[in-house]
């Protein structure tokens, strides 16, 4: 799954970062992103169908969970383990295969041992398809 870090969160800003090579390739010691946000562009192929032409809800949950965990791990202290405590999904519209989606995940609460993450999945036309939240333990 290719991913890009985004401070702006818009499709244009992410594409500009990709094209100009301004995406950080590694995290510097002690560095936290100014906005703890991860943006992912993912292609939904036919191998993840629940019904013909539609992504399976479990695969959508996997994309959501993985992206929120990535946002948490990138913002946890070095060497910390991040463990899921809960995952809540709100499927707003179907996600059709054969399309790209834009996934934004961010931390909206950070304490030493607990993070709370949120996520939106959008079509490339900026139509919201999924909302999710997760509670995460940091050890």
From TrEMBL:
<dbReference type="InterPro" id="IPR052061">
    <property type="entry name" value="PTE-AB_protein"/>
</dbReference>
<dbReference type="InterPro" id="IPR006683">
    <property type="entry name" value="Thioestr_dom"/>
</dbReference>
<protein>
    <recommendedName>
        <fullName>Thioesterase domain-containing protein</fullName>
    </recommendedName>
</protein>
<dbReference type="Pfam" id="PF03061">
    <property type="entry name" value="4HBT"/>
</dbReference>
<dbReference type="InterPro" id="IPR029069">
    <property type="entry name" value="HotDog_dom_sf"/>
</dbReference>
<feature type="domain" description="Thioesterase">
    <location>
        <begin position="53"/>
        <end position="127"/>
    </location>
</feature>
